[in-house]
Structure to design on (282 residues):
């Protein structure tokens, strides 16, 4: 089994990005900047945001943190987004999800300028992705594709199974796998027999948000497994795939932590950098 080491790959690529940014800034351009909006004090969100801030600092992307009370009104958040959209020094805007139930997350995401959509969640950017046009891709799918490419995994003709159909991971990653020539099946909570599909799969991306649902008996020998799960169980972070079980049968496997998570953060930095390049070119 070959470990798909997202941590090591993200460190290497973050350093490369850092050098690119340094070169541009040394030519008297301003630094890139990401605005992070965090609503409330969800412990997981606080921890993710901390990771994102640290990564920004590492590569030379400035960050402005907007940490708001969980009772903030929809209107106040909308006003903040309007201000950030108009701020010429802000390249990317990230609205950390999930947000309080009384707020309309989908409306807020689509209010973020599509030219500042660091997450690639905007309906127009998703539309471009589904039409195979160049755009900002959602960070997790983008990170997964970067990782597969770095390990020279050729998806042409592969049977790919994605478990999970979310707008931010399952569905877009299925699209990107198909673009690379894989035949895709998307399984989800209503699928009658997930293992019927996974047993035929050359590559499985599991993004179900349920700890250890993918096990050895569901996977053929030599399959590639990419684990998007970040489940906190008894204070420990565990994936949707049962790593110690699967490592005996897989050809390639991502660990949790140290797999898709760090690649997601790397892709967020890349997205912010791409938006920055467009802004300073204007
Ligand atoms: N607007 C928005 N954009 C997101 O990209 C977004 C979001 N909301 N909400 C939550 C999810 C989750 N997510 C993770 C990012 C990094 C790790 C990560 O780096 N994890 C480390 C471990 C970190 C730890 O131990 O807590 C690892 O897997 O090695 C995990 C999860 C981004 N998300």
């Amino acid at each position: 089994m070959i470990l798909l080491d997202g941590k090591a790959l993200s460190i290497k690529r973050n350093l490369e990005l850092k050098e690119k940014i340094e070169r541009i800034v040394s030519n008297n351009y301003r630094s890139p900047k990401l605005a992070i909006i965090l609503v409330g004090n969800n412990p997981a969100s606080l921890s993710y945001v901390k990771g994102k801030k640290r990564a920004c600092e590492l590569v030379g992307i400035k960050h402005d943190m907007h940490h708001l009370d969980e009772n903030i009104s929809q209107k106040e958040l909308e006003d903040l987004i309007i201000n950030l959209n108009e701020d010429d020094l802000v390249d990317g805007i990230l609205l950390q999800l999930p947000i309080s139930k009384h707020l309309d997350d989908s409306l807020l995401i689509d209010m973020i300028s599509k030219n500042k959509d660091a997450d690639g969640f905007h309906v127009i950017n998703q539309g471009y992705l589904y039409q195979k046009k160049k755009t900002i891709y959602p960070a997790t799918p983008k990170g997964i594709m970067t990782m597969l490419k770095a390990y020279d995994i050729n998806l042409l003709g592969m049977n790919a199974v994605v478990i999970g159909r979310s707008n931010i991971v399952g569905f877009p990653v299925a699209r990107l796998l198909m673009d690379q020539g894989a035949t895709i099946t998307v399984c989800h909570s209503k699928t009658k027999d997930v293992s019927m599909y996974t047993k035929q799969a050359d590559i499985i991306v599991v993004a179900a948000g349920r700890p250890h649902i993918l096990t050895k008996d569901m996977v053929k020998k030599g399959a590639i497994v990419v684990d998007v799960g970040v489940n906190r169980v008894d204070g420990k972070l565990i994936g949707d795939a049962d790593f110690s079980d699967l490592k005996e049968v897989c050809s390639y496997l991502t660990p949790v932590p140290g797999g898709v998570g760090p690649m997601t953060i790397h892709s967020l930095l890349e997205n912010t950098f791409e938006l920055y390049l467009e802004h300073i070119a204007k």
Observations:
- The mean pLDDT is 97.
